[in-house]
Structure prediction request, 305 residues.
Amino acid sequence: MAATTDGTQHEDQRTGAPAPPPGRRPGPVALAVSLLGELLITAGLVLGLFVVYSLWWTNVLADRKADREADKVRDTWSHQETAPGGPGALDTKKGIGFLHVPAMRNGEVLVEKGTSEGVLNNGVAGYYTDPVKATLPTSGKTGNFTLAAHRDGHGAKFHNIDKLRDGDPIVFETKDKWYVYKVYSILPETSKYNVQVLTPVPAESGRKKAGHYITLTTCTPVFTSRYRYVVWGELVRVDPVDSKRTVPRELR
Amino acid sequence: MYGWIWRHLPGNAWLKALISLILALAVVYVLFQYVFPWAEPLLPFNDVTVDNQ
Prediction:
């Protein structure tokens, strides 16, 4: 018993020693190599953390922000009913409506103005103001309702864009209307400079005449932004929103 | 580098481990809060729009 106690005490003293025993100090080359190794390990860890940041943490932040903004929009809508005639019937700063795409299985996506990083990083879909201005469905005019959202990170609202097939519904919800679109054309890969996909009559989708179109754009392949993925839809129906906000049959 | 930091931390092994953990968490916080948000737009991973530039 006494011998063991002695032994542990002895070891404690040894590990508590501040420096390695003299005469065994590594040479300058060994020091440099071990420093380099430690720096490389650190760089690897930082890169790993960056992946965690961009694929997980930005989603957490963006979803939190988008939920808050969505609540605000729904609040405004319900308050406007009690106080009609107030200004800001179309408040483009807080979001103009919600996009429902059942095939993407991600619930509702708030739509806001602009496609800058500052907008899209909040976990929303943005409608284009540049280089080609989107035509809002609420305007009633013919044109193209062009939208962009992140494929990965920052909410990743269009992550499952590749699950969309011809004929799938895309529903845009505003305060008093459901705009029901049907997918009719998909471009799985195009140049990021191909702004032709945003024109009021997107010729590349096969349509030649003016109509009510919707265009979803995001980056592809996943985790990169080398190309763009484009999905086109055409308006098939506009339903009025009833007092219970009954969803159109496409969303049931 | 890490050995040098470890030797210069005060206290016994437990205290050193605790301080190391706090330091590591502080580094992760600074990375997530300041460094990554700054670096991300400079890296070509998350451009989703089509444009002329």
Notes: Chain A has three helices and eight strands. Chain A has one domain: 52-81+93-251. The two ends of chain A are 75 Å apart (CA to CA). The interface with chain B takes residues 15-16, 18-19, 34-35, 38-39, 46, 49-50, 53-54, 57-58, 115, 117, 120, 128, 130-131, 148-154, 158, 190-195, 197-198, 217-219, 223-226, 228 of chain A (CB under 8 Å).
